[in-house]
Amino acid sequence: MDINNLLAGVKCTCGRTHTCDIEYVYIEKNATERLADICRENVNVLIVADENTYAAAGEKTVAALSGKSISKVIFSGKEILVPNEAAISAVTENLGNADIIIGIGSGVIQDLCKYVSFFNKIPYIIVATAPSMDGYASTGAAMITDGMKVTYSVGLPKAIIADTEVLANAPIDMIKAGYGDIIGKFSALNDWKLSNCVNGEYFCDYIYNVTYDQINRNIELAGGILKRDEESIKALMEALVIIGIMMSFAGSSRPASGSEHHLSHFFEITGIIDDAEYFPHGIDVAYSTVITAEIRERILANAFPKESFRPNEQEYKSAMEAIYKDVAEGCIALQKKVGNYACDRAPIYLEKEAQIRQILSEMPASEKIKELLSLVELDMEEFYSLYSKEKIENAILYAKELKDRYTVLWVNYDFFGGNENVQ
C-alpha cells in the first residue's frame, strides 16, 4: 500500500472523508538525508532524544541539518523515560526560539514531542529509531499526568523519517514489541466491532479491513523480522505507520487500541506506582492479547446473564485504592462520568446475543495468538513469570477503569466481576 497515496485522503463509503495532515513519510535507507529539504526553511531546531536513540540516529540527523542553529535535550538512556510533567518541563524549558522540534526515538520521545509541539504551536518531525509501536502517525499522545495514563488528542508530525538500517539495528525487544503491537490489533478491532454492536459506536469497514490486512502481512513476514531483514523491518514499520494513519482517519485510536492496551496500561501504571518491573509496551500488548482472547472464550462458553454483575461499591472502591493509590479517585470519577457503573447492559446483551457471540468468535483463539507470538520468540511463560496470577486477575478487573472506552473487559465485568482462572 502506498503511504503517500493514503496521506492524500480517502472519501469513504462510511460517509466520512478520511484525512491525515502528515506532509511526508520516508521509510528507506538513509532517510535522514531527507531532512535537509524538509527543513530548508527552518532556522532554529530543538532535538529531543535519549542517550540511546541519539547514539542510533543523532549524528545522521545533525549532519542533515548543516547550517541550522541546533539545541538539544538528551535524556538519560540508563532508565525508563516516563512522559510525565517533569519530562514535559525539560523539553518546554529548552524551546527557546526553536521553529521546529525533531524527536529522535520511538514511543515516549514521540509522545513527548507531540505533546509539547501541540501546546506550544511548533511543528515537529519524528526520526524513528525502532519499529516498536503504532503511534508515529496517530494524533494521540500517551502521557502520564497526575499519575494517570492519559491519551491526549494533539497533533500529527510534519514528517516521519525512518532509516531502515537504523530500524533493523534497534534492540530486538523493541522489534518484537512492534510485531506484538500489530498482533494486538486482533483484539482492538474485535473490541471496536463489539462496541459498534452494543453501543452504536461509529465503525468503518475500510479502516477495519486496511488494519486487518496489515496484521496478516506482518504475520507472513515474521521470520524475516526476527532475522532483522531490512525488507521485513521496512514492512513492519510501514504497517505501524499505516495503522497510525487509520487512527487519524477514525479520529481516535479505536482501530488499534482496546482491551489489550488497557491491560498493558495497567501493568505500566502499577509498575510505576509500585516501582515494579514491566515489559515494553508492545510486548505487554502482545501477551495481553492472549488474555483478552481467553476472556472472549470464557464469555462464549457461558450463558448470558439476565442482569449485570455489580460488586459492593465500598469494597470495590477500597480495592481500587489499594491498587491505584492516589490515581484511584480519578479512575472512579472517569467511569462515573461516562455512566459505566450505573449502566445495566444485560438487556442489550440478551437482545443482541447472537450478534455478540458472532463478533467474539471472530477473534483468533488464545492458542493461535500464542502460536503467532512464538514466531518472534515471545513465550507466555515469560509473562506469567513476571506477573503473578493475582496481578493478572486484578488487571482483568481493574484495567478498564483507566480509560472511558468500552471493550470486552466491560462484558467480563458485567458477566462475572472479573473472577476467572487466567492460566
Structure report:
With 423 residues, the protein is α/β, with parallel strands linked by helices. The chain has two domains: 3-168, Rossmann fold (3-Layer(aba) Sandwich), CATH 3.40.50; 177-416, Up-down Bundle (Dehydroquinate synthase-like, alpha domain). It is built from 21 helices and ten strands. The protein has helices spanning 3-7, 35-38, 51-64, 85-92, 107-120, 164-168, 172-183, 185-199, 205-220, 222-226, 230-250, 259-274, 281-300, 313-324, 328-338, 346-351, 353-361, 366-374, 380-386, 389-398, 408-416, and strands spanning 10-11, 17-18, 24-28, 44-50, 69-75, 100-105, 124-128, 140-145, 148-153, 159-163. The strands form three sheets. Strands 3-10-7-6-4-5 form a six-stranded parallel beta sheet. Strand 1 and strand 2 (17-18) form a beta hairpin. Helix 7 packs across helix 11, helix 9 (205-220) packs antiparallel against helix 11 and helix 13 (281-300) packs across helix 21 (408-416). The longest helix has 21 residues, at 230-250.
- What fraction of the residues are assigned to beta strands by DSSP? 5-15%
| CATH fold descriptor of the largest domain | Dehydroquinate synthase-like, alpha domain
- Corresponding CATH superfamily of the largest domain: Dehydroquinate synthase-like - alpha domain
How many domains make up the 3D coordinates?
A: 2
